[in-house]
Amino acid sequence: MVPFAVDVLMWSLHTAFAGAWTGSILFFFAAVLPAASSGVIDGPTLSAIATKLRWLTRAGAVVFVATGGHMAGTRYTFDSLLGTGRGHLVLTMIVLWFVLTALVEIGGSRIDDAGSSGPAAAAAARPAFIAAGIVAVGLLIDAGILASGRVI
Ligand code: HEM
Fold first, then answer.
1. How far apart are CA 143 and CA 119, in angstroms?
2. Which of 64, 76, 82, 107 shows its CA 20 to 30 Å from the CA of 92?
């Protein structure tokens, strides 16, 4: 049996990173990109902030795979992942995590390629971050359904 403290550590790291990562992406989309669009933030500054977000995303990849792998390994079997509502929500979570990771990397590299103008860099990255915002909200809803316990 897995010790209580290990489960608490894994669940706490997973939910802490879930909130910090999706929250940072939504804040970047809702507050930082508009500031760059209006010229308050220039291209290099936007790029520096986006680089931090990309590193948080990469750290998140390690944390989500390790903690989520532990959670799936201790609570699910191959059959329950494929054959129950909760299993489908976990599989959806993995797909959305993968898509969101790719969108942050794409948006970040568009900013890097756009040069020194804040508005131009924001315009180049906006489509990727609109999609990222939608996927982040989707992940939070997926996790909320799991946490509600209303799906078996
Ligand atoms: C490799 C990626 C991921 C894997 C393998 C994974 C796996 C899991 C598993 C197995 C659970 C437990 C489900 C249950 O209690 O029945 C879980 C819960 C949770 N996950 Fe993920 N997850 C991943 C990524 C994410 C991401 C990106 C978020 C961001 C929102 C997230 C947020 C949550 C939250 C908040 C819970 C707690 C829900 C509850 O109370 O059960 N996960 N995850």
1. 34
2. 107
- State yes or no: pLDDT of 2 exceeds 90: no
Average pLDDT of 118-142? Answer: 98
Sign of CA dihedral 73, 79, 85, 88: positive
* Cβ atoms of residues 127 and 133 within 8 Å: no
CA 119 to chain centre: 25
d(CA 43, CA 70): 40
Which residues' Cβ are closer than 6 Å to ligand 1?
14-15, 18, 22, 64-65, 68-69, 71-72, 75, 86, 90, 93-94, 97, 139-140, 143, 146-147
For residue 1, the model assigns a pLDDT of 77
pTM: 0.97
* 70-89 average pLDDT score: 98
